[in-house]
Amino acid sequence: MSTKEAKEFTREDVAKHNTPDDLWIIIDSKVYDVTKFKNLHPGGINVFLTEDIPGEDATEAFYGLHRHEVLERPQYARLQIGTIAGEKSQLHGRIRGELSEVPYAEPTWLAKGYHSLYFNESHKRLQQAMREFVDEFIVPDAWAREDDGKRPTLSVLQKMGELNMNAMRMGPGKHLQGLTLMNGAVKPEEYDYFHELILNQEFSRISPRGYQDGFNGGMVIGLPPVMHFARPELRDRVMKEVLSGSKFISLAISEAFAGSDVSGLKTTAKKSEDGKFWIINGTKKWITNGTFSDYFTVGCKTEKGLTAILVERSDGVETKAIKTSYSSTAGTAYITFDNVKVPIENTLGPVDGGVFVILSNFNHERWVMVCASVQNQRKIVEECLKWINQRKAFGKPLSSQAVIRAKLAEMIARTESAQAWLENITHQMNNMSYKQQAELLAGPIALLKMYSTRSAQETARDAVQIFGGRGITQTGMGKIVEHYHRTVPFDALLGGAEDVLGDLGVRQAIKHLPKNARL
Ligand code: HEM
């Protein structure tokens, strides 16, 4: 703390500085000299000259209009000239790595006084290490990239590679053997789906949604077919490059012609005359990370079905950015394949058997999306709970309005029920073989994703009502709510549209009806 900040004043001292040429204010027991700043203030000069502000305590006025972080920005922090003697400031922003104490801001397993059947000490260690990493390295990069629209910074992704975070994002399994995970926070042999859930939920604490997808969303969905179906030589090379953060991969299935309906794809792969290459022609659309990917796991139409093929960026592959409602940080691309020559050895799984290769990762992919969707809703609950106490309307805090509290009740209930269902499914994943998961969890995961993304949209709508005009403003108090409301529909589309998933869940249930319950 500088000597200026350490200086102490009485409230009477501050009250003497109450003219436009000598203007001090108090915010949360801290004294600010805003004499010069008032001319530069983004909210205008006038607000500083109105009654009850010059020389007075402006805490309530300030917090009704600004996010706390404003006072932490260096250019504004230096306006503080001291503190009020004998008083302690009460309000502070998030401290790096710390849990939030706002009710419902953390899942119950992390909240003070609560218990969980599922999480143990290794989960807690990983959560703590992850939160510190995310707060220190990812959050600042995420907001900076959100502003300039560039891809996530390479050094951050490589740091993730060094800590083996990318490998952990691929779930439990052989690929973790022998690795030191997050500086030893968890041993490879103890790593389970709850550890992966933690990773996904800690990453989702980053607000900018384009960045959430930009930093290796493509890997999470594009690498599994390589891991499980590529020839060993190709698999080992590509996994090493991608998991270390030196190369990037995306899953290229959707087309302008077909989204959730993978059997309607039109991109073709035909064998060259000598049988040594695939010749690929066609287009792909909405490919996350596509603008900067080195590899593409592509779904192609072949003679008798669909084949998954790993395509390297090479002659004939072109990627163009698509302007979506979130930032270009996600690298969402339109891809054209023009007579692209790919070695036959790059075939992933059986020729004409690609539907299975692609579908085999759908459960995991959707489960990852649910982890993020629930955590994002939780963040909005926290934003709203804080805001309704901070903001006054009609002379009272918003929290005194029953209609506002009713909205919060719904938001909390939706978030907690989705998290509880998610934890239950995660527990099943830990205890089922891959085959059992495919058989028993495809329906529940599809239904959970439908439920969570639908809840998320309702929560976004409620949050905008609570924040009013600020909920549609990209700067200031409502920026997180505005961003969430604008980008939340993504979750309801990626990994299968909401209605398609709901229908899949019910069809699976019908399929499993016992004979004695059928007519
Ligand atoms: C050290 C004190 C202050 C600083 C550093 C500050 C800074 C800012 C900044 C950066 C903004 C732009 C929006 C944002 O990023 O949130 C802003 C907006 C604003 N400020 Fe301040 N401000 C201070 C004190 C005050 C006080 C005491 C009042 C009221 C009496 C006030 C009223 C406003 C208003 C009305 C806006 C526009 C808000 C909107 O468009 O929603 N500010 N201020």
Automatic annotation (TrEMBL):
The keyword Electron transport does not apply. This is Cytochrome b5 heme-binding domain-containing protein. Transmembrane segments: none annotated. One of its GO terms (biological process) is fatty acid beta-oxidation using acyl-CoA dehydrogenase. GO terms for molecular function: acyl-CoA dehydrogenase activity; flavin adenine dinucleotide binding; heme binding; metal ion binding. GO terms for cellular component: cytoplasm. Belongs to the acyl-CoA dehydrogenase family. SMART domains: Cyt-b5. Pfam families: Acyl-CoA_dh_1, Acyl-CoA_dh_M, Acyl-CoA_dh_N, Cyt-b5. Its cofactor is FAD. The keyword Flavoprotein applies. It comes from the Eukaryota. Residues 6-85 form the Cytochrome b5 heme-binding domain. It comes from Postia placenta MAD-698-R-SB12. Keywords: FAD, Flavoprotein, Heme, Iron, Metal-binding, Oxidoreductase. SUPFAM superfamilies: Acyl-CoA dehydrogenase C-terminal domain-like, Acyl-CoA dehydrogenase NM domain-like, Cytochrome b5-like heme/steroid binding domain. PROSITE patterns: ACYL_COA_DH_1, CYTOCHROME_B5_1, CYTOCHROME_B5_2.
